[in-house]
């Protein structure tokens, strides 16, 4: 955000005429945007609150009804009007130009977002028709984490590549091949390689996913760095190539060999002893598969690598100004190769989610375009691993919400289906705005 | 038409003949041979600069077909079986593979250009690819990566198709109305991404990807309405357009194919001869310089995306008004994504896009008969298409493999970066 000059202007011409404080145009625009946003939020929250006839609803702290998690009853009145109050406070602050900046502002913004979410849920889940299936508000965190896992991993791959100055549109290709080979590896390990214990077959599948992801990354690096192919072209082509090749290979698996080649073992959930006992979030975050834990670790690892190590500094240097990096003795293409290949590891893991991480067998285009959404997350997160992670989690959250709400009456299904994408457009257009990619992103480096 | 004083592309030299390639001649041009060509007469120069491109492209196609031959071999059960006794009787392996590859590629050629119906099929498949590919090319030239052709096609199909089967109009007017509806709907959907980029800076890659999905759900929403439901079907399926709204056919090919050619000519004129096209290329090359020169970058973004959407809408009419397909959420097939590949293979020029679209149309039509006649899996076509683009984009690799002499052209760089 640009700096502002509120308060009296430093050089006022006369003592008798205090000049109105000069404000930056961008600052005024920010205020207008906030007032409009909060005004809309407040208006819809009031409507939601007024539309509730019978304030009784049921909620569940887990994702599914189990012995541990039983539905409890709640009263919507307090929550609905509490949300209204929060939105009203934010609106007043914005109207008086007292809305905080920096992390405080972000926190308040998130609070308003949560208030909107809560008010919306109250409207959606109360007044359900009698005699229908019982619907309750389930904990959104487990589903969000599940959906976000491959997106986060893919976005990390994108961040690594693009910070090093190599555009990676081929995340989808890495997902597809990772998914396919994870399935194949896990199936082979289970059916043919007797020395691998059954429990480790799925983990062996992850290895296959990583290998396939690295292989696509190697193709990306080879053509982009060795032959200096336009990287946008390359990415699009690799996606087409991987889509065709995985479908082709899937078609080549004879039906009598399905169980040896495409019937993988799926990753088991692992409960982390103490952490999983934290109320509400514990079971959601720490009773997940190995892949999810790898995802947590990857975010920390990539952030650490990029911003705390010498290697990360080099990666960012070759992505911003390769010539300067070369001048101080960094081998530009070697660093780019390393970043691209390491990115392949994460994207391959992300691809493995679609087979051994979730449903099992590989199917045609099993990742269904999520690689492109991971790409969008990279841009939305401004090429920063943590930002990209938040973008991916945001998307996972919206997607999960859509899944959960599909059992509830008031919202039309198609609008619900489009909601995650609309929300992304609104978020990008309204709050992320203009982004600045790494300066040398997509430009091959030729040593003179 | 365009005045040259505000010319941010070139250094203002009188030699404007090279302007069309302005964005692609970056990098160090090797001295010597190329300079000699540059000094030669105009026709000569054209020949020498085109020849390596043609040679490279043909070599790339050949290389892709060779890799495809390998895939055909290993997807033929007989060949794989003969591998098990390869060392005792190798001849079988070669014989069977030769037969498999020969059958496959003969079916590919006869199914794409071997007969009148084959040509019809090729042209009808190429037409939407060309139109949507032109849209992607146009946006590319203005410095934008339009992944949203898919959504734009869906919206165009929805509106064009609805006008086509819901209203009763006299023959010529009905067709015009449906065509216009599709164009306007596609343009509007494309313009959203342009407006968002111009007003808020939202990246067009994100917005067009998201708009693709939103377009699909919009389609599903309207397909659920009574007015769009085909009476005798339980699926989400609309009736086909009335005959009065369908493209007339000439010699078995619907007129839409001609429209695709007209569209290519229009895009060429727009980019090379009009002020707006000049501004688009200027913004694509360097938006800051264009802004400094007094052009409205926002206007260029919006108009480029609207025109791109319009061309995608035209692509929609090829299926809906041309082949008279019913509306479903799958009506666009994969045209929107293949269009990106077509545009990139065609180096984002109108002529290149037409040729690439024809090649892809032929591969797609031939792939069908490969599957039918020779039992080659249909996915092979997709792999072939990807390989061709890959090899065309990497001339150094192809030249290395075939030991072709000469410098060849530089790996050209269009729209690097985001």
TrEMBL record, chain A:
CDD domains: TM_PBP1_transp_TpRbsC_like (cd06580). It is a multi-pass membrane protein. Residues 1-24 are annotated as: Disordered. Keywords: Cell membrane, Membrane, Transmembrane, Transmembrane helix. The chain crosses the membrane at residues 32-52, 78-96, 105-125, 145-161, 173-196, 202-225, 232-253, 290-307, 339-356, 368-401, 413-432. Pfam families: BPD_transp_2. It is found in: Cell membrane. This is ABC transporter permease. It comes from Nocardioides deserti.
Automatic annotation (TrEMBL), chain B:
The chain crosses the membrane at residues 54-74, 147-167, 173-193, 205-224, 244-271, 300-321, 327-346, 353-371, 383-402. Residues 1-40 are annotated as: Disordered. Its main location: membrane. It is found in: Cell membrane. Residues 10-27 have a biased composition (Low complexity). Keywords: Cell membrane, Membrane, Transmembrane, Transmembrane helix. It holds the Pfam family BPD_transp_2. It is a multi-pass membrane protein. It comes from the Bacteria. This is ABC transporter permease. It comes from Nocardioides deserti.
């Amino acid at each position: 955000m640009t700096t502002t000059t509120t308060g009296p202007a430093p050089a006022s011409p006369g003592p008798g005429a205090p000049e109105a404080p000069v404000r930056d145009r961008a600052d005024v625009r920010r205020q207008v945007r906030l007032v409009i946003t909060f005004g809309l939020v407040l208006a819809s929250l009031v409507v939601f609150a007024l539309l509730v006839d019978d304030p009784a609803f049921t909620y569940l702290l887990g994702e599914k009804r189990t012995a541990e998690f039983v539905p409890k009853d709640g009263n919507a009145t307090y929550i609905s009007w509490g949300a209204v109050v929060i939105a009203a406070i934010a609106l007043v602050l914005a109207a008086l130009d007292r809305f905080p900046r920096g992390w405080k502002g972000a926190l308040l913004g998130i609070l308003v977002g949560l208030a909107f979410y809560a008010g919306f849920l109250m409207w959606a889940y109360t007044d359900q028709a009698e005699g229908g299936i019982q619907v309750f508000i389930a904990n959104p965190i487990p589903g969000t984490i599940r959906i976000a896992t491959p997106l986060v991993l893919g976005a990390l791959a994108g961040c690594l590549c693009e910070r090093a100055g190599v555009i990676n549109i081929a995340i989808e290709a890495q997902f597809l091949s990772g998914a396919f080979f994870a399935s194949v590896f896990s199936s082979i390990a289970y059916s043919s390689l007797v020395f691998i214990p059954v429990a480790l077959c799925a983990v062996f599948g992850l290895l296959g996913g990583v290998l396939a992801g690295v292989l696509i990354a190697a193709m990306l690096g080879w053509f982009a760095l060795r032959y200096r192919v336009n990287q946008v072209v390359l990415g699009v082509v690799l996606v087409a190539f991987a889509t065709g090749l995985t479908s082709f290979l899937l078609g080549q698996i004879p039906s009598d060999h399905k169980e040896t080649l495409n019937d993988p073992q799926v990753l088991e959930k692992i409960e982390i002893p103490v952490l999983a006992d934290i109320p509400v979030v514990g079971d959601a975050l720490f009773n997940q598969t190995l892949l999810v834990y790898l995802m947590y670790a990857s975010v920390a690892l990539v952030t650490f690598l990029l911003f705390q190590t010498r290697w990360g500094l080099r990666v960012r240097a070759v992505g911003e100004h390769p010539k300067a990096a070369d001048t101080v003795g960094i081998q530009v293409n070697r660093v780019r190769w390393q970043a691209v290949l390491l990115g392949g590891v994460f994207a391959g893991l992300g691809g493995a989610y679609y087979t051994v991480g979730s449903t099992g067998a590989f199917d045609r285009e099993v990742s269904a375009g999520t690689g492109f959404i991971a790409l969008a997350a990279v841009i939305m997160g401004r090429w920063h691993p943590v930002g990209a992670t938040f973008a991916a989690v945001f998307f996972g959250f919206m997607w999960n919400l859509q899944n959960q709400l599909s059992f509830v009456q008031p919202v039309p299904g198609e609008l619900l289906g489009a909601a995650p994408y609309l929300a992304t457009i609104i978020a990008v257009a309204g709050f992320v705005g203009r982004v600045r990619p790494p300066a040398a992103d997509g430009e091959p480096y030729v040593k003179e | 038409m365009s005045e040259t004083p505000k010319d941010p592309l070139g250094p203002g030299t009188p030699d404007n003949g090279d302007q069309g390639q302005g964005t692609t001649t970056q990098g160090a041009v090797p001295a010597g041979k190329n300079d000699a060509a540059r000094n030669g007469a105009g026709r000569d120069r054209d020949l020498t600069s085109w020849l390596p491109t043609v040679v490279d492209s043909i070599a790339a196609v050949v290389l892709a077909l060779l890799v495809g031959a390998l895939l055909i071999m290993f997807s033929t059960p007989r060949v794989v079986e003969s591998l098990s006794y390869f060392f005792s009787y190798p001849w079988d392996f070669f014989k069977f593979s030769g037969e498999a590859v020969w059958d496959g590629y003969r079916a590919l050629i006869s199914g794409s250009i071997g007969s009148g119906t084959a040509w019809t099929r090729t042209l009808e498949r190429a037409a939407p690819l060309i139109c949507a590919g032109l849209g992607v090319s146009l946006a590319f030239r203005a410095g934008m990566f339009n992944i949203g052709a898919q959504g734009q096609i869906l919206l165009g199909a929805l509106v064009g198709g609805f006008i086509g089967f819901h209203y009763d109009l006299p023959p010529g007017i009905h067709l015009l109305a449906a065509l216009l509806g599709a164009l306007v709907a596609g343009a509007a959907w494309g313009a959203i991404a342009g407006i968002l980029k111009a007003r808020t800076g939202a990246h067009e890659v994100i917005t067009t990807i998201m708009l693709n999905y939103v377009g699909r759900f919009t389609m599903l929403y309207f397909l659920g309405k009574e007015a769009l439901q085909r009476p005798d079907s339980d699926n989400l399926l609309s009736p086909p357009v009335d005959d009065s709204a369908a493209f007339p056919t000439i010699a078995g090919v619907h007129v839409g194919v001609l429209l695709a050619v007209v569209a290519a000519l229009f895009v060429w004129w727009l980019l090379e001869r009009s002020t707006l096209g000049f501004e688009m290329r200027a913004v694509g090359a360097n938006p800051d310089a264009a802004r400094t020169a007094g052009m409205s970058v926002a206007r260029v973004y919006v108009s480029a995306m609207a025109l791109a959407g319009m061309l995608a809408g035209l692509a929609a009419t090829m299926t809906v008004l041309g082949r008279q397909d019913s509306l479903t959420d799958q009506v666009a097939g994969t045209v929107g994504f293949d269009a990106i590949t077509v545009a990139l293979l065609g180096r984002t020029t109108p002529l290149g896009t037409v040729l690439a679209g024809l090649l892809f149309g032929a591969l797609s039509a031939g792939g069908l008969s490969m599957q039918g006649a020779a039992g080659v899996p249909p996915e092979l076509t997709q792999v072939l298409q990807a390989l061709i683009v890959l090899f065309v984009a990497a001339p150094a690799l192809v030249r290395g493999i075939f030991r072709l002499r000469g410098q060849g052209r530089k790996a050209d760089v269009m729209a690097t970066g985001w």
